[in-house]
Amino acid sequence: MAVPMQCDISQKEIAGDAAEASQVLTHKWYFSRKEIELQSPSRSDGIDYKKEEHLRKLYCAFLQELGIELKVPQVTIATAVIFCHRFYTRQSHAKNDWQTIATSCMFLASKAEETPRWLGELVVVAYKLIYKWDPSASRRIREIYDKQKELILVGERLLLHVLAFDLNIEHPYKSLVAALKRMDITHKDLVKVAWNFVNDWLRTSLCLQHKPHYIAAGSLFLATKIMKVKLPTSKGKAWWMEFDVSPKQLEDVIQQMMSLWEHSQSQSRSQSQSQSQIQSQSQSQTLALKDEKVTKSPIRTTSNCVKKEAFEKVHDTSRETTNGQTSDTGSGVSVVEDGDIGEPVTVKSELSSSCKIVSVGAIIGKSQVVDVNKIREKLKNRNLIKTMKRKRVEEGMDDDGEDWIERELENGIVLQSTHPEKQKKI
Q1: In terms of domain of life, where is this protein from (predicted)?
Q2: Domains of the chain (ranges plus CATH)?
């Protein structure tokens, strides 16, 4: 919409008399399929038929969404679509921005169908739809509001000139409803499917090739095939005679509709299959990542615990080796020896006990059996001996040597190697 609008027709011709414009432009609005595919004005500007068909679908979808936002009837939307189709049979896509032309078609169709909307409202809603991916569009429209209004008014004048002021549009809806009443068809689903077919053909070039009552008859025929309903005959007349159509031309219309419908169905199936494949691939990747996390997490925990256990062991051993501290048995293991009982008691750190793994002896391949009851009995005897010695100290019965040794053991101070005499006493 922000792209400046261009056209081969000069401003002098736009401002000219309506009679002169009608003499320049013909009133032929129905073309053959060959003329639409090969002789469109967009071909001379390098736009092929597939590209033009894609652009046709874009502005039809935009007009449908714009009409819903403006709350106009479906007939007004259909009139805007027909205006846009007819404009591009006379003008090229390369020289006329389809967003500006489509907005001008909606503005003109709302007045032609007597459902007018304010120009300011139309400009704001259309601009937001065009730039709906941009959150700053609502703020930017205030800056270019007047320019956009002028652009739509210029587009309306250009549209009137190209259409030769021919605003009388007939739609298939009227023929379809009248034929259904005459045939006394009250099947709601059948009527709904036929109506939807009429809406779908608006997005194609069928409305440029065939008159409205042919499109209505072909839509009803396809609806009966899908719903598997047999059309009634009244007074010996065939159903297609209610639409005032020739059988041969109706057959051509139905064949073209069938090919378009089958093509759209194949595209929808391929899209659904591709989406299902993408979803299945994403789900399989997610499951694979979950499985990988589950398999890696216990190994990581075990390795961390082993590292902590090994670090603690090396740290204790290096500390004892540096200080020259050994037990009476000459072992380098961190052991505190009970002076009275003579049994070693292994000291366990809180860090190693928090790890959910096997003890260090099991890690290095040695099996160590710990008798819990025996350890409890030793601790109990040791506490009993400490209690008895305290009583003896209070009574003055204990000597200085044993009292010093007990204090050292209770305070956790390891005897230094610089006191050989005290070591001999112990």
Answers
A1: Eukaryota
A2: 11-266 (1.10.472.10), 371-426 (no CATH)
